[in-house]
Amino acid sequence: MPILWWFALLSILASPPAAPRTPGPTVAVEDTLYTELPEELVTAPRVTLDEILDRVARGEARRDSMIRTQAFTAAVRVMHKPRGAAVPQLLEETVWRIYKRKPNQMRAVQLRKTEGELIRKQKKKKVSGEGETASSKKDDDDDVDVDFSPGMSEEIATFAFSPQSRRDFKYRIESREILGDHLIYRIGFEPRSPIDVYRPTGRVWIDTNEFVIVRQEVAFDRSPVPVLIKSLDKMIVERRRTGGTWVLARVVMRGELTVPMPKFGRLFEFAILYDDYLINQNLPDSVFTGRSAAK
Q1: How far apart are CA 241 and CA 170, in angstroms?
Q2: pLDDT tens figures, 211-261
Q3: How far apart are CA 112 and CA 89, in angstroms?
């Protein structure tokens, strides 16, 4: 036996026994299945941007034409952030029940009104020991100014995509996404003219099952009323499907006043929350009698 083998044998015998292996996870190394498919040339044309805009106009018009009557609850809420406050506070919330019927009938009934601490303190100062003053009675009739249109269209969500607006805005396809069985187009828009600084920019999400706008985000590069409002943050408009129809779910906007108001502060938030829809239900004539409680 060669001498090198003796040295190898002695080194093995002199080595301490290996420590027993403790139980633990076992990692298996497996081959990865790899499949390559040949490229396939797709000859079907992709829908163009102009065709998408045309389909949205038709889809929104179809949606509006299918609604004969509509009833819903709208909660109009205004928040403010007084100087020194850590979180926004309620200024006022008014809840309305809105009834609409084609061709142009509409009635708004105020269900309740909640006033924040600022308004309650202001009214308390105006109430004399003998009763309310004339000015305080007038203030009781002052509500948040919101216009409810008798029409069935929701222009706050579709204003940039009506046929007459195509000449005022430029559009671009930002993305195409598949959510479940829905193909969603995200379309951006901006003013066509660079000097038209007061028109907003934004983007919408379009459900191609019906080609209606289901969400919109709007940004204002400049305030439309700079004397009163310094800036308006992103406005969000969301819709949801109710009774087979896409309807408004909420509108939210935040902003900053040019000059801070005493006790009110500078920052504010405006929101409308829509709920309790009844679509194409028989509304009796008595619903529309009497004076409307809102504009």
Answers
A1: 28
A2: 999 999 999 888 878 888 888 888 999 999 998 999 999 999 999 998 888
A3: 19
